[in-house]
Amino acid sequence: MNGAEEAINIVKVATDTAAATVPAHADLSMLTLFAQASFLVKLVIILLVACSFWSWTIIFAKFSYINRLKEKAERFEEAFWNCTSLESFYDSVSDKGDNPFVTIFISGMKEWRRSRAKIRSTIAGRSLVERAENVMRVTAGREIDYLEQHIGFLATVGSTAPFVGLFGTVWGIMNSFESIGLDQNTSLTSVAPGIAEALFATALGLIVTIPAVVAYNKISGDINKLQGRMDAFIDEFCAILARQLEDSEQGAA
Predict the structure, then answer these.
(1) Which residues, in sequence order, are CB contacts of 208 under 8 Å at separation 6+?
(2) Pick from 238, 232, 229: which is nearest to 134 by CA?
(3) In a domain, 30, yes or no
């Protein structure tokens, strides 16, 4: 009995000692991890949070603008194909500069009107159609450049944020090993804060990266589709100009 009682007492003492060394409630919330992090890891976290904020700003702005642009493009194309005269349609279109299709159409019509009175032969007329096409393609290129503004930042964040988070992870683990070497204590309570800090930097890097990559691919795809619609409209519009030119030549003959 004495041996059994002694064993029970030893177990109780070990249990009490372990309970005394482990805190009743370890606070591992994000704010606590940030407050306990080293200066360099704090800089990494602040950088990732700033990149995430700016990325979401770009994402919401681009999605909203592209959706509005799709609706405007559909309305313009419907009105364009239902019009009876290019001249009357041109006079009715408002040059507000917020619809790339309108801007492209106006640039082509301005070039067409400016030089149409000087046409004296079919060759000159064909040259005018080519000039109008070139002007519209230059205008379309400028509109695409405007649409692509700031999305390069999403690509940069998507490719670099994981490595920034990994850098914070490595630094946090280095601090954990350093604390083990200084304190000569390998208990979980001594290394848990540093490990949690390191893993928090990794998780934050992934949280910043995934939305940026997904949004970049979606926005790039939408812009490519709009560019295809612009190119198709330019080709069709140039075909209409060439047809009108042929009709005027036949009427003059």
Answers:
(1) 48, 51, 52, 55, 157, 161, 165
(2) 238
(3) no
CB 45, CB 172: distance < 8 Å? no
Question: What's the domain range around 117?
Answer: 44-252
CA torsion through residues 25, 31, 36, 38, sign: positive
Segment 52-105, tens digit of pLDDT:
999 999 999 999 999 999 998 898 888 888 888 888 888 888 655 578 888 899
In a domain, 32, yes or no: no
| Residue, of 221 and 240, whose pLDDT is higher | 221
What's the predicted TM-score (pTM) here? Answer: 0.75
Cα–Cα distance measured from residue 183 to residue 208, given in angstroms and rounded to the nearest whole number? 35
Encoding tokens for residue 69? 């642009």
Which 3 state secondary structure label does DSSP give 22? Answer: coil
Instruction: Please give the structure tokens belonging to residue 50.
Output: 């700033």
Rounded to whole angstroms, what are the CA distances from 26 to 29, 39, 76? 9, 22, 61
- State the total domains in the chain: 1
* pLDDT of 230 above 70: yes
CB 107, CB 136: distance < 8 Å:
yes
Q: Would residue 23 count as lying in a domain?
A: no
How many angstroms separate the CA atoms of 218 and 224, rounded?
10
CA dihedral 34, 35, 38, 41 (to 10 degrees): 20
Q: Is residue 139 part of a domain?
A: yes
Which single residue is written with the structure tokens 């995430």? 52
